[in-house]
Amino acid sequence: YELTVPTGGGKTISSLAFALHDAIARKVHRQRIIYVIPYTSIIEQTASIFQKIIGEDQVLEHHHNVDWDDLGEYGEIKRLASENWNMPLIVTTNVQFFESLFSNRPSKCRKLHNIANSVIVFDEAQMIPLNYLMPCMRIVQELATYYNCTVVFCTATQPTLGQFFPENLKPQPIISNYKENYRCFKRVNILYKQEPVSKESLVRELSEKNQTLCIVNRKNTASDLFDLLPEEGRFYLTTNLYPAHRKRVLGKIQSCLKAGKICRVVATSLVEAGVDFDFPYVYREMAGLDNIIQAAGRCNRENKRKLSDSITEVFTLDGNEKFPQYVRQRMQITQQIIKKYQDDFDNPEAIQAYFRDLHHVASTDAYGIGKILENEKIPFATIAKKVHLIQNDTISVIVPFTDDVDKNNELQELIEQLKLGYITQAGRRKLSLYTVAVYPNIYHDLLDAGKVQSIDSQLGVLSDCSVYDSQKGLLKNYTEGNGIFF
């Protein structure tokens, strides 16, 4: 099925209602509901909503940033359930779900039998990695055909996934009049600035407004804009901040928005899909059409303002043209769609046209996994080596500095255990909440400057607290404080 709901239209609770109804309506009842979500920030938010509806003891939140010790009386139960997904409702990541299905490791395969007889909801379905889209849809087809699964692709920007399925399995719309819903739920005007703007002029616009969100494509761009903003009420959100730090910043932003205080946020795309922000103004650097529409969903999300007072502006920056090919492809297709549809480029027809063009020019099976799956005997070890939804060409740096004395002591103790080689899996999971991923050249610069102590080839510990800024996270230039880019 497809559940296509405009941003702010209540798709999270609507999809849960559909999943619960489907689970009990089938002749062979579904045993559990599995929510598959791209970002951990959305998972935490979604799991919290579901826990309030059906009970904290019924929902398992499973991703690498979960700290089971923080879950109170249910922590140990959920830790054990995470190994085999033995709970009624699972909320997990694209990485956990698909890499488990392609894996040959017992630890990941232990949960596979509990995926059968499930309702599987892919929230923000457009975020399934394009390079793996065809083999991922091949797996979905198998689950629906042979393992008694119901599958729902849920998003405001529905990709054209029907092409990957045979006629009898093409996704059917749950809402037949979703095009009318787009007009009904229209809460924001999206405007396109045709002329490039400078960083200085963009910051002047941002500074004139008390509450605004600006999403850009690069971390160094975000860092430059943040530095130019007035200090009062400014926030920076990228993966330069370790996960626990990002979570604290998200909470501060929510508080400022609710209190009506000055709140100017500069961020990368990690906040544009599913995060419950409600700004009167949003600025989005030119990107894919789905990115733009998702970013616009952070504007007037709660529909408390007039349409005329809710603006999302799409812009390009002077001299900001050297992007990777996959980013340029999306930009070029988006510009073509804007040219064709003019002021109505966020309608469902335009979205479908965008994804048709994108799937035509981009590789949806970049690593040839689809061809391997045609073998009579499937070589799972070979496939497992090829499937990495997040390309892991980075090195992890643990940041053992917090304002919480108890947490700080705990981090130091865990790092000692790590160095001595007897740390538990639970300990590693706690440390991951204080970890930033960097490219090897940045890591070696930190190492050469004596700012990092190496644990092994893929892991180090930050030894100089001045390299980690309380607002911008891990810094590249240790004297001038420029933002890191990786």
Which descriptors apply to this entry?
6-stranded parallel sheet, 486 residues, alpha/beta, disordered C terminus
How is this structure best described in words?
- 40% of the residues lie in helices and 16% in strands.
- It is of the alpha/beta class and 486 residues long.
- A six-stranded parallel sheet has the order 1-6-5-2-4-3, with helices on both faces. The chain has a six-stranded parallel sheet with strand order 7-12-11-8-10-9. A four-stranded mixed sheet has the order 14-13-16-15, sandwiched between helices.
- Helix 12 runs antiparallel to helix 13 and helix 16 packs across helix 17 (425-432).
- It is globular.
- 40% of the residues are buried.
- Mean pLDDT is 88; it is low at 479-486.
Outline:
The chain is of the alpha/beta class.
Helix percent band:
25-40%
**Tally of DSSP helical segments:** 18
Q: Structural class from helices and strands?
A: alpha/beta
User: What is the terminal-to-terminal distance?
Assistant: 37 Å
As residue ranges, the low-confidence spans are 479-486
Biggest sheet record: 6 strands, parallel
Rg (CA only): 23 Å
Report the β-strand fraction as a percent range: 15-25%
Question: How do the strands of the widest beta sheet line up side by side?
Answer: 1-6-5-2-4-3
Mean pLDDT: 88
Large-scale geometry: globular
Q: How many strands in all?
A: 18
